[in-house]
Amino acid sequence: MIHNEIEALKVLLASQEDVEKWSHGEVKRAETYSYRTYSPEPDGLFCEKIFGPVRNYQCHCGKLKGIQYKGLTCPRCGVEVLPSSVRRERFGIIKLASPVVHIWYFKNNINYVGLLLGLQAKAIEKVVYFVSYIVIDPKQTKLRMKQLLTDEEYRIYKGEGYDFVAKKGGEAIRDLLKMIDLEKMRKNTVEKIKNGTKQEKIYAVRLLGVLEGLIKNNRRPEDIVLDVVPVIPPDLRPLVPLEGGKYASDDLNELYRRVINRNNRLKKLIEVNAPDIMLQNERRMLQESVDALFDNGRRTYPVLNSSKRPLRSLTDILKGKEGRFRENLLGKRVDYSGRAVIVIGPDLNLDQCGVPKEMALELFKPFIIYELSKLGYNKRRAKELLENPTPEVWKALEDISKNYVVLLNRAPTLHRLSIQAFKPILTEGKAIQLSPLVCTPFNADFDGDQMAIHLPISFEAQTEARLLLLSSHNILSPANSSPINGPVQDMVLGLYYLTFGSKGKKMYSHLLDNPAEVELLYERKKLGLHDAIKYFVDGEKIETTVGRVLFNDKIMENIFSDDEKTKRFKFINETVGKQQLDKIISDFYSEFELVKTGIFLDNLKDLGFKYSSYAGISIGMDDVKIPPKRKELIGNGTIRTNKINNEYNQGLLSESERYRKIIDVWLEVADSVKTAVFSHFAPFDSLYMMANSGARGNKDQITQMAGIRGLMAGPTGKIIEFPIKSNLREGLTVLEYFLSTHGARKGQADTALKTANSGYLTRRLVDVTHELIVKEKDCALQMIEPIRIGDEIVESLSERAAGKIAAEDVKNPYTHDVFIHKGDMLNHDQAELLDKFDIQKILVENYINGVVVTPILEGGSVVASLGEQIWGRYAAEDVVVPQKIKEISVNSDDAVNAVISESITDKATGEIFAQVGDIINKTMLNKMKKHKIKKVKTFTGKPHVIVKRNELIDKQKIEEIEKFGITKIKIRSPITCHSDHGVCEKCYGLDLSSRKMVNIGEAVGVVAAESIGEPGTQLTLRTFHAGGAAVADITTGLPRIEELFSARSPRGKALITPLTGLVEIKEDKAKKTITITNEKNEKAKLVTAGDKKLSVNTGDIVKVGDVLSKGPFDPREILEVEGVIPAARYLIQEIEKVYKSQGVDINVKHIELVVKQMFNRVKIISAGDTNYYEGEVATIDSVLTANRIAKSRGGNIACFKFLIQGITKAALSSDSFLSAASFQETPRVLAEAAIKGKVDLLRGMKESIIVGKKIPAGTNFKFEE
Length: 1265
Description:
Elements: E1 9-10, H1 16-22, E2 23-26, H2 48-51, E3 91-101, H3 112-117, H4 121-128, E4 133-137, E5 148-149, H5 151-159, E6 165-167, H6 169-178, H7 182-195, H8 198-216, E7 225-231, E8 239-241, E9 247-249, H9 251-271, H10 276-295, H11 314-318, H12 324-329, E10 337-344, E11 352-356, H13 357-363, H14 365-374, H15 379-387, H16 391-401, E12 406-409, E13 419-427, E14 432-434, H17 439-442, E15 450-454, H18 459-469, H19 490-499, E16 511-512, H20 515-523, E17 532-537, E18 540-545, H21 546-554, H22 578-591, H23 594-615, H24 629-649, H25 655-680, H26 686-693, H27 699-706, H28 734-769, E19 773-776, E20 781-784, E21 787-789, E22 792-795, H29 797-801, E23 805-806, E24 810-811, E25 818-820, H30 828-836, E26 842-845, E27 851-853, E28 856-858, E29 861-864, H31 866-870, E30 879-881, E31 884-889, E32 899-900, E33 904-905, E34 912-914, H32 922-930, E35 935-940, E36 944-947, H33 955-963, E37 969-971, E38 982-984, H34 985-988, E39 990-991, E40 996-997, H35 1004-1022, H36 1037-1045, E41 1061-1067, E42 1071-1077, E43 1083-1089, E44 1101-1102, ...
Parallel strand pairs: 2-3, 10-14, 11-13, 16-17, 19-38
Antiparallel strand pairs: 1-48, 3-7, 4-5, 4-6, 8-9, 10-15, 11-14, 12-13, 12-15, 17-18, 20-26, 21-22, 23-26, 24-25, 27-37, 28-29, 30-36, 31-35, 32-35, 33-34, 39-40, 41-42, 41-44, 42-43, 45-46, 45-47
Helix pairs in contact: 4-6, 7-8, 9-10, 14-15, 14-16, 19-21, 19-23, 20-21, 24-25, 25-27, 28-35, 35-39, 36-38, 37-38, 38-39
């Protein structure tokens, strides 16, 4: 083992012997502390004899004091002399007078006791809680084994002299579990799986998993019944003295007290031979008190404290947001941190932040003390100096802070760019200063936002922060590779003003070619900022403005060194708004490296602020100009609606037609008013410039201010037909004001509700993908080794290599003869030789399938082009440009020797006399003329490959693909990747945040989850900016995303044909029944709502997969009918559509990673010669491995069908029980893991953090070339 690291974690059901081994003594009394001496009571819940001394190295009575007595036991009080920290580690024990059943195993989602005994949950509860007897041995009577008897029946049978054994409570359950012969039961269960009914098979598969776990780990089912209860260490359930002699106690102490009191009372009753009815009652109460201790929330009436709050039991301590897993193991508070309000730092560079001096003094305290100690101060004096800092202290702080970077984090931390590293600049004042360029990734503004600051301590942490987290290294968004750091608001406005086109003034007569000359003329007021000039650049004469020349000159300052003077960026000769800026930054990043882009952004920021100040753009009431045409347009709208209402009153229109027409009229009017408002603005009007540049606001908001507010949505979301004719400048009437409140309220409510939903979605996405890490360069060529835990081999090389294809020759290390040739499929014997010859690794090759990608369409328009989906990915097969097809006359000279592209048939006889690919000769030509064929389609040119298999598709390749009009390409995808518990570089493609090859160890799963989850929150929070206008918001979006990721059957789904055959439709008022009959007379019935429109009629013939009605598809049906790749592709396309409709750009590879996890499980249909059973659910990787081994031995493989799991279910069925338990349903996951003896190999990130390991990703990824 390396560095004493945990390599795997196993959890088992503890037997009585195990619990007694952990224990350091029996807790016999319920007392805690003595109220006289304030010391722990002997044999009580805090006893020093059992749990260790309260004071360091000092026994209870004080006879042995000091470290010299370590390990000795005091002869007077019996306390061992040890450090007091052992009170966090030592367990005690309570020996129960009557056995009790563990509540997790009979009152959980799966009733394991019922499963093992073949009884209903109700029956088990009746026995456990002493309501009914259960027959354990019927002997020679007519009673059945495991028959339940009421008290009355029991008395009657006994009274009649029946000789049988029946018991109640934990004892009865234990006796029954003891009788189980696990091996025999396993045999019977396997038989049931093969020959049982459908219901029996489901039960048997579930039971078999439990039996195999118990047999494999050498455990007995009766361990579910407890004779002893462990008492956790006292420092984990503290009792804290308060003022006035009171104590604040942990709830567990109260729950343990109840168990001990009831147990002691039961012991006494047994001693005095109390009546059976009293004993039964006391035993039931003991069972209930142990239930409450283990899981108080699961009981019908939980135990309450004095303020009527349920007590926190052991289960409550583990589960939920405040539980041990999520609160303490996955989220920890750290020192060397602070938080403060943020303010803008316009002078800061992209990679700098302003840290208040007082805060830095606290953050760097130990380092400053060390520096001062070099100057001769002792520790105490140095601390005093820090209280009242002197110039030496400030000098030391200045010197130290130059060598460190700090991390800034703004909550909510929705994606990895919410934590970035900056070089600290010490500032006066009490607020952290932040560069305005990084507001977008942090989603920060300066209206009172706070940020947390952290100081990485170790050299490694500082190096990581500098290289990976520095804000100037995180310019591109990991979600879509577009620039995320960049100018916003004032800066955009300044740059827009600077580059705005000429004011229509006369062109300056001289030709200029030097920016310095242009600047001089501007400073001498010979030229204005927006004056048109002729300018000579890159060898050509162009017309531009003074501002644009200054813009192109200033943004390139300090970027190129003297050696790089020949390098240039293109001359930008257009008005620059937000969209243009994003493109400019993106192009600059592609052309030059990261560091230069950082300087480029700082130049843009400085220039933007400078010219937005020069422009002096402000906003006042007079800037909101109301167009004169407005009244006329609204008047026309009123006349048209009156006309529609009159037609309705005359009975010419229905209610729905009237409503729809009125809505259309007002939407049209609002559009006309919008056009009028913007044509009324002058180009340099401040409001127009703000909206047009993308600096602040949009056209709709300005229309509401100066034009018309338009139609509003009511509380149900239905559009109110009376529009708000006023605008915000004029003010609203009382009625209009109240009409507009619906939308505003809905916006506020949505914001609150959807934030929670979106956060939960992100959490589920992270949970399902966190184990996906880039594991290797190419899964088509894999280096495989045995899997080890410590020194133990869990999966040998022979098991891993059997059935794989060798990618190179393998030699016998002793004779150097080749015993496996390159290209051989390893059979069982060859694989066994690998272990025999102690070969540690072998290179194998896999066949890579890939996924066919086409443009994503919505209603005929392209939502996501082919280019944006395949950029930065690898081709799974050659992309070939086909030959062109040309139609030629049979009489032309070109006809002879031409190659036919379409077969030619004799119309009379149906005989094909020319096939595709045939070369036309004279005989064939005469035949064509004879059959009166005038024209024929032929190939011209040669097919050629534009992208080779396994080649990267870059921008140039995409241009070529688009030029040839190719609309379908097969690319490598995470969905078809062969890497174990991860993906490979080739199947993932480029890292979107750097546009370079993704690094091995990159946590692509978490990046994908954040990229999908973060905009969910953004979109949700964006609703209230819409001001309540009658436009759809994310309400359509987020529920649809959840529906897709949960793989639920959508409402109003489309019908898909499961058979090829003849259609017959029967309909009544409520429903339509469609029956499809194939040639073999097999029938498939589909039922849909009576009002559903169908695209087929009775008598039509349909094929498998044909769509019979409109609506969204059910992904399960696509999986059933078309297979896993079409179902996955459907989900990806639908999710992409929802985000694109909201204007959010997410690269499809992120969605592919999540979808990969949703299709990770399969259900066994027939087991073949593998160790699986029919109906068993397993991961696709494990089944394919088992099939390979079976095939290598010449056996039959298992047949299976893919399952689709929603992300919640996929996260809960993770191979790692720690990951699943820390997600949801903690008691169920842990109970199952313990009874099956699961092993967690700590492959993902959550498990590693829980056990205190570094995560197996990034700089800690163990990769062997």
